[in-house]
Amino acid sequence: MKLHLLLFILVVSSVNGLFPQQIPKAIVKGRVVDDSTGAPLPLANVFVSNSTIGTAANEEGKFELKGVPLGTQQIVASIVGYKPASFTAQLSDSIVQIVEFRLKSRPVQIPGVEVEEKDPVEWRKHLQKFTEVFLGWTPNAAKCRIVNPEVLDFAFDEGANRLVATAREPLEIENFALGYRFQCMLVLFTQSPQAFQYIGFTAFRLVVPRSVAELEEWKTNRRNAYYGSKRHFLQALVKNSTKKEGFDVYSIRKDWTDRALRRPVGFEVNVDGLLSAGDTPHEKKLDFQDLLQVIYTRGNVTRISLLELNGPSVTIFTNGLTANPLGLWTYGYWSTQRGAEMLPIDYEPEQSK
Predict the structure, then answer these.
(1) Considering the domain boundaries, does residue 212 fall inside one?
(2) Does residue 296 lie within any of the structural domains?
(3) Contact (CB, 8 A) for 293 and 260
């Protein structure tokens, strides 16, 4: 998978020239072409991962994404018959970034070639497990469905009791609890009694509500999914507003895990010491010892989560995402937030009030 960064173009305008209520955004533009021939790929999907921002390439393979949030963003290009490609863009207010995606074709199944028949009973059993683990067990999950489960393949390791899932095409998921339909390009999915690991590129689309009451229900559900979430906490951490936004943070020993999932334990942390400067203005390094107990309180709601580093440190972005999706392990409430609670990064709860 080759991807070439072609050019940075300076933009004349600056943040100082904007009205105070305006939030500066970036523009990403470029082309999507066949890697072998260089021919344009019209109608290729190009989107900012985990957002509602996306477009289709024109007949010349050209695209333009407007209103992209500043900071580190994953830009993804895909089209049926080709392997998707992604690019990590470092976006500031002073540039338009231009990218060329060169997509490699997928091997095509040749008609007449005999393929071993899968056991439909085993496949359906694995599909049920995948659906439960991927979407979760919350009330929102009951209002979600995978539209095209037939693109999934499963491998099960009986010795490790581990399920591995792959997808030949992007998954399409309808979420009628939050009012989104999202497409997920599955990069990694493994589930075992010890751990669940997931990486994917996700493109969101808003669903048209059937009534005003349904829209209001979606707004409420979105706020409930966001407030107290890991993304909410990491955004508050970067803004140094954890207390103001309802979070108390404690340092705990690993052998206190069981107690820490039920009530406050440990020693309160000075959150200022958790972060250090990152490589760009839009990122920070998160580093801590042992585990963090994070307790979110809002009205009558209390949610307890635990956070563990999978490595010496992890880079977090101002949008609440991490450079390495597997860099933080979660327990408690955050571990229950799965696909049914997934929100796009351009969602702002204040706009839904």
Answers:
(1) no
(2) yes
(3) yes
Q: Does 94 map to a domain? A: yes
C-alpha angle with apex 242: 241 to 248, nearest 5 degrees? 155
- 344: exposed, middle or buried (Cβ count in 10 Å: 0-12, 13-18, 19+): buried
Please report whether residue 199 resides in a domain.
yes
**Residue whose tokens read 């760009």:** 280
> What contacts 156, CB < 8 A, 6 or more positions away?
122, 126, 162, 163, 164
* Structure letter (DSSP) for residue 237: H
Q: Is 320 left (phi over 0), alpha (psi -120 to 50) or beta?
A: left
How far apart are the C-alpha atoms of 173 and 185, rounded to whole Å? 11
Domain that holds residue 23: 2-103
pLDDT lower than 70: segments of the chain: 1-23, 94, 107-118, 350-353
For residue 8, with 0-12 CB atoms within 10 Å meaning exposed, 13-18 middle and 19 or more buried, which class applies?
exposed
Q: How far is Cα of residue 269 from the mean position of the Cα atoms in its chain?
A: 27
What is the count of structural domains for the chain?
3
Q: In whole angstroms, give the CA distance from residue 174 to residue 294.
A: 31
Instruction: List pLDDT tens digits, range 199-236.
Output: 999 999 999 999 999 999 999 999 999 999 999 999 99
Query: Which of 7, 2, 53 is closest to 32 using CA atoms?
Result: 2
* Residue whose structure tokens are 């860099």: 327
Q: What is the CATH number of the domain that holds 78?
A: 2.60.40.1120
pTM reported for the whole predicted model: 0.83
Same domain assignment for residues 261 and 329: yes
- Beta bridge partner(s), residue 236: none
Give the dihedral of Cα atoms 46, 26, 86, 310; nearest 10 deg. -140
